[in-house]
Amino acid sequence: MGRSPQRTAPHAVRPDLATVLRTGPFHLALRTALSARGLALHRVQQHLAQRGVHVGVTSLSYWQQGRRRPERAESLRAVRALEEVLELPAHSLTRLLGPRRAAADAAAGPPVATRPYRDLIAPADAVDHLLAGLPGPRDTDLHTVTHIERIRIGADRQLLRRDSQHAVRAHRDGIDRYLAIHQGDPGCDVSQVVVRAEENCRPGRIRRDPAAQLVIAELLLDRRLRTGETHLLGYGFDDAPAPQPSTEYVRGFNSGTGQYVLQVTFHPQALPVRCHRFVSSAPGALPDETEELTLDGHHCVHLIATGLAPCLLGIRWDWD
User: Rounded to an integer, what distance in angstroms lies between the CA atom of residue 39 and that of residue 84?
Assistant: First the structure.
């Protein structure tokens, strides 16, 4: 998959600001950006007005304090203009806002948008075929509150295992299962992939497509959820070896997501030379944004994303 050109701000973003722009929350990122730029709120208001965007100083103050969030269309337009005024990378503030619904309303209805699984996994026909073998209700009425995912790469540069701690909220009555989808690297033997249902769930039906390296596992919850109820489940996959080294891990989100954390841990004898976070809209599409990541002292890289709309999000690495 190719990469799109990086968007850069007019001036270098200082490290503390770059970190909070990546992790959020929105109000802290805005407050840090205002401090870095050294602009008083009334001056920011003037700069916005010059761009045809009108927002009160009180609203700006509330946004940076976290007392209110930009929700209306005009407010979101102001946030996009703020990125220019504060000399920030494009979309760096807007992506921290996530869906245009207040968090307090999250339990009242479905996420803002839902995309079919076939839009996020290739080949789409393989996804359709496996889902057809799992008749019954889909989990599209489950919204991710928090998802922490850990990927481990072994000494042979291949993906060894994937572990998930996943908190979800139901948007209708009667949800009693979750569909976990795993796609191995090209050439892996999915008949050898092990599905682990470890916490607050048990394995149901499992379907595999060897040609697409695809596994869909039904994880049965221990109760039927009512609208607004939450559930925490732990599960994972032990991958099968592939002929070539692994070079990326991608997670598809078919509906809105509260917070997602991804950590990739590399064996100390097999460390990549470069790692990048990326976001794209469809399999094979050029990334909408990329960001370089740095290995820490434990041979890990990670990303934290909040308020995600349906998309593909992942980490890619280079061995040479």
Answer: 13
Identify the CA nearest to 182 among candidates 145, 213, 211: 213
In the chain, the largest separation of any two C-alpha atoms, in whole Å, equals: 63
How far apart CA 313 and CA 250 sit, in angstroms, is 6
CA distance 178 to 180: 6
Instruction: Provide the token pair at 134.
Output: 């799992």
Q: Within 10 Å of residue 235's Cβ, how many Cβ atoms?
A: 23
Residue 100 contacts residue 71 (beta carbons within 8 Å): yes
Q: How is residue 285 annotated by DSSP?
A: P
Pairing status of strand 257-266 against strand 142-153: parallel
Distance CA 308, CA 313 (A): 9
**Interhelix angle for 57-65 vs 26-37, to 10°?**
120
Task: At 230, list the tokens.
Answer: 């939450």
Scored b (16 or more CB within 10 A) or e, 237-248 reads bbbbebeebbeb
From CA 82, how far away is CA 93, in angstroms rounded?
8
pLDDT tens-digit series, residues 227-268: 888 999 999 999 998 899 999 999 988 876 789 999 999 999
Strands laid side by side in the 159-170 sheet = 194-199, 230-238, 159-170, 142-153, 257-266, 300-308
Number of H helices, E strands in the chain: 7, 13
Q: How far lies 273's CA from each of 5, 189, 246, 292, in Å?
A: 20, 28, 14, 11
The 10s digit of each residue's pLDDT in 140-184 is 678 889 999 999 999 999 999 999 999 998 888 889 999 999 999
Burial class (CB within 10 angstroms; exposed 0-12, middle 13-18, buried 19+) of 95: buried
